[in-house]
Write a structure and sequence with these properties.
Elements (H helix, E strand, L loop, with lengths): L3 H15 L1 E4 L5 H16 L4 E2 L17 E5 L6 H21 L5 E9 L5 E4 L16 E10 L12 E4 L11 E4 L6 E5 L5 E3 L6 E11 L2
Helix pairs in contact: 2-3
The chain binds N-oxalylglycine (OGA) and manganese (II) ion (MN).
Manganese (II) ion (MN) binds next to loops.
Length: 217
């Protein structure tokens, strides 16, 4: 496994150049396995929430996204989540120091997509948040991060994160890259800049998603 310092250098370079970065083996394999185990347990025990989208969070749009989620907070800390938070915090500090990103905190959830589950093309940050009109939330998602927890994931099992490389909702001919949800892989991208989607898979797809937020005052 690469040293954290080396991983950070690559992440900082790639974010600067492309607005996104892919880092392999972000955490040790046994931590990834423990996180996956926790997610599976909660999924099987029915402790996860069916994810909601859109402005009215009371409506369920299973056609838009079909994952079940579990928000992580101080109460849900254990060995593996603590290791995750420690490293993600160190990443935050490094990004603030090197890229002046002003990242303040992170919101995080485990997610399980069932077989065939998708998340249609979307942005993690609503553009209109920044235009100075009313109802500006106190926290704005600045940088999206997805850590994949799927042991031995094969290319023909699908479930790619499709990251669109030009900034448009409906450009069907757009350039994109497909990223397999391989255990230990961390994907980072600027939340306001990248439309993205989750493609269907032939097995359950597990991830730990986090959004670094800036404080707006
Ligand atoms: C999300 C999301 C991508 C992925 O949760 O907003 O886009 O690859 N997830 O799980
Ligand atoms: Mn997203």
């Amino acid at each position: 496994m690469q040293k954290f310092h080396t991983q950070l250098t690559t992440i900082i370079d790639d974010l600067t150049e492309n607005g996104y970065a892919i880092c392999e083996d972000f955490l040790p394999a046994q931590i990834i396995q423990a996180l996956a185990g926790k997610a599976e347990e909660r999924y099987i025990d029915g402790e996860m929430l069916v994810a909601k989208t859109g402005k009215n969070a009371n409506t369920q749009h299973s056609a838009i996204r079909s994952d079940s989620i579990y928000w992580l907070d101080e109460d849900s800390l254990n060995n593996s989540t603590q290791t995750y938070f420690a490293k993600i915090e160190a990443l935050k500090v490094a990004l603030n120091q090197n890229l002046f990103m002003n990242l303040h905190d992170i919101e995080t959830h485990l997610a399980v997509y069932p077989i065939g589950g998708v998340y249609l093309k979307h942005l993690d940050q609503f553009k209109q948040i920044n235009n100075g009109t009313a109802l500006i939330p106190a926290q704005v998602r600045q940088l999206s991060s997805v850590l994949y927890l799927n042991d031995n994931w094969q290319a023909d099992e699908g479930g790619e994160l499709r990251l669109h490389l030009n900034d448009t909702a409906s450009n069907n001919g757009s350039k994109y890259i497909d990223i397999l949800p391989i255990a230990g892989r961390l994907v980072l991208f600027l939340s306001a800049d990248f439309w993205h989607e989750v493609l269907p898979a032939t097995r359950n797809r597990i991830s730990l998603t986090g959004w670094f937020r800036t404080r707006v005052s």
